[in-house]
Amino acid sequence: MSNHFTDPSGGLSPYGWTESLDQAFAEHREAGLEPARIARVDRGLCDAITGSGPVRAALALPHASDPLLTPCTGDWAALRPGREPRLVALLPRRSTIVRSSASRTSHGQVLAANVDTVVIAVPLSAPLDAAKLERLLAIAWDSAARPLIVLTKADLATDAAAAHAEASALAPGVDVLVTSAATGENLDVLTALLSGGTTVLLGSSGAGKSSLANALLGDERLAVGEVRAQDGKGRHTTVRRELVPLPGGGVLIDTPGLRAISLYDAADGLEQVFAEIEDLARHCRFGDCAHDAEPGCAVQAAIRAGELPERRLASYRKLQRENAWAAARTDARLRGERTEQQKAITRHLRATYRFRDRQS
């Protein structure tokens, strides 16, 4: 942000309002609209933050059949003020956290928008699930935000150092931090890392996201549930995504625990997560190497040499297949929508011609 930027929104800078956003909003301001950031969406209404404070507003945006285009927590929007405030437009997003919809349709679901840091919460009270962490990392990298792995519940860990080493090996280039909301371990470090930007918490139920969020907020603002001892899983104490300001600056978006973590058009994220396999593949003898039994396969050579775990290649293949399946379903849906649009145009033209014929 420019040092000379004066916030004309009346107080949205703590929520991430910048000079570039202000410039993008110019035409909306000329139309008598006000900027607002969506804190929570609930059944056609939303809680939004404006320069003059929070408002409850209706969503009056043009209907979109694609959930990727619907408003979500973190969006910047144009608000028409009045007795019944209405959000009438969204500003372009600079990052989006997207997964396949829980219904397993061909649509994607946006979990949060305009995020700077994705905190992936991994509990040390249970063995680290490498495959689940790789999925979350793919979603995080693909969002255009910065991933950060936070190992929670260090007070319940049997070997926090080993878990830290394992997570670091799975996520080269990503910071890994061991924390405990109960003891306060490394919470000051985490607070400094998150200061000034928008952070979203991702993880499974029972990962300790709400406890971590409360520790960062300095207040028991978010509900915390019990975790089952037999499997380490918890209840969905967070039932919807919500944006709240952090005391040290910046904002935090807490999300419900993710039971289904399905990829949606995350090819770039997969390339980042499995960068070592992508690099090895460039040295295979054949450009279309499937990394099975082809001669000159650099990936298989690395596995034989003990440089690449076979589990890592299996996970890479599984996530690639899943992502390709989601992309194929999306392509088929888009083709179907274009076909329906063309049919509607054809029906309209035929009706027009029949009307003209009757008039002649």
CATH superfamily of the domain at 96-254: P-loop containing nucleotide triphosphate hydrolases
| Number of extended strands | 13
* Largest beta sheet: strand ordering: 10-9-8-11-13-12
Structural class given helices, strands, pairing? Answer: alpha/beta
What name is given to the CATH topology of the domain at 96-254? Rossmann fold
CA-CA gap between termini: 65 Å
Assembly state of the chains shown: single chain
Could you list some keywords that capture this structure?
single chain; 10 helices; 6-stranded mixed β-sheet; Rossmann fold; OB fold (Dihydrolipoamide Acetyltransferase, E2P); globular; 360 residues; alpha/beta; 34% helix; 5-stranded mixed beta barrel; 20% strand
Word description of this protein:
The chain has 360 residues and is α/β, with parallel strands linked by helices. Among the domains are: 13-90, Nucleic acid-binding proteins (OB fold (Dihydrolipoamide Acetyltransferase, E2P)); 96-254, Rossmann fold, CATH 3.40.50.300. It contains 10 helices and 13 strands. The chain has helices spanning 19-24, 26-30, 130-142, 160-170, 187-194, 209-217, 267-273, 275-281, 298-304, 310-359, and strands at residues 34-42, 45-50, 53-59, 76-80, 86-90, 96-100, 108-113, 117-123, 146-152, 176-178, 198-202, 242-245, 251-254. A 6-stranded mixed sheet has the order 10-9-8-11-13-12, with helices on both faces. A 5-stranded mixed β-barrel has the order 1-2-3-5-4. A two-stranded antiparallel sheet has the order 6-7. A hairpin with a 2-residue loop joins strand 2 and strand 3. Helix 3 packs across helix 7 (267-273) and helix 7 (267-273) crosses helix 8 (275-281). The longest helix is centred in the last third of the chain and has 50 residues, at 310-359. The radius of gyration is 24 Å and the shape is globular. It holds the Pfam family RsgA_GTPase. One of its GO terms (biological process) is ribosomal small subunit biogenesis. It is an enzyme of class 3 (hydrolase). This is Small ribosomal subunit biogenesis GTPase RsgA. GO terms for molecular function: GTP binding; GTPase activity; metal ion binding; rRNA binding.
